[in-house]
Amino acid sequence: MRIAIQGELGSFSHQAALKLEPQATIVPCAYSAEVFKLIESGEVCAAVIPIENSLAGSVVEHFDLLFQSDVQIERESLLRIRHNLIAVPGTPIADIRTVLSHPVALAQCRRFFAEHPAMTPTPFYDTAGSVKHITALGDLQTGAVASEQAALAYGGEVLAAGIEDNPANYTRFFLIRSRAKVRPLPNPDKVSIAFTVENRPGTLVSALQVFAEHNTNLCKLESRPVPGQPWQYVFYLDYQVADPAATSAALDQLRRQSLLVKELGHYPAAVLPS
After folding, report:
1. What is the chain's mean pLDDT, rounded?
2. Segment 206-235, tens digit of pLDDT
3. Residue 75: is its pLDDT beyond 80?
4. Which residues are catalytic?
5. Number of helices and strands in the chain (H, E)
6. Which of 51, 85, 155, 195 has the most CB atoms lying inside 10 A of its own CB?
7. Which domain holds residue 138?
8. Looking at residues 92-114, what average pLDDT do you find?
9. What is the CATH number of the domain that holds 150?
10. Which residue, among 271, 40, 33, 86, has the nearest Cα to 178 in the 3D structure?
11. What is the DSSP string of 2-17?
12. Based on the structure, what is the number of domains in the chain?
């Protein structure tokens, strides 16, 4: 099974993909749009994309691509994000002067850098890419912050594990497929949709009231601008249902009072890892 990810091998997306499909062959892509094109062309079976982090928030580009593309969410998974200081094997931690990583990862490790003032955190394009870079150069004074998967992928050595400030650091990932090839899973209790309403008073409140009437649990609401239409928005919404019949009933009613409703996926809600 070929699964596309955005980013380098060894990234958290790589780790999440193997968690969902342990035997998968991972296809790294430089850009998120490329990931979606590979699915739609049939060059990969599926893709695994991050959709939100419990600390940093949503990956808004992926909401836009889900809306624009003919794909559907098949599963979701929650991955505990553990940042590690990684270096060329044999490097003493005292020798590290520069630490490369994605700016979000560096920002989540401020306490570690405060405790190691000799290290200068330096933004890099990717967490796993930073490990790939330092191991390729053999740089003994530069470290990287990334996953353990990155150390395994590029032969790096973990000098300090779990250096993130907040242990409640999770990223939610979707496994997505071409809409025609989605494999329904048993007991789906969570729905992701995108919808638009007329830009006049009360339309959004009226749309959200539908879910209260059908006893659903709204989990997330996100708005994104419509390209080329200033001050017009697409709303992304996740909700959970106790009764599967409520899924179609709520959507049917929402369609009657919205300009557009697109179902992005119907899948079992992920359980927070212990």
Report:
1. 94
2. 999 999 888 889 999 999 998 888 889 999
3. yes
4. 171, 173
5. 9, 15
6. 85
7. 84-160
8. 97
9. 3.40.190.10
10. 40
11. EEEEES-TTSHHHHHH
12. 3
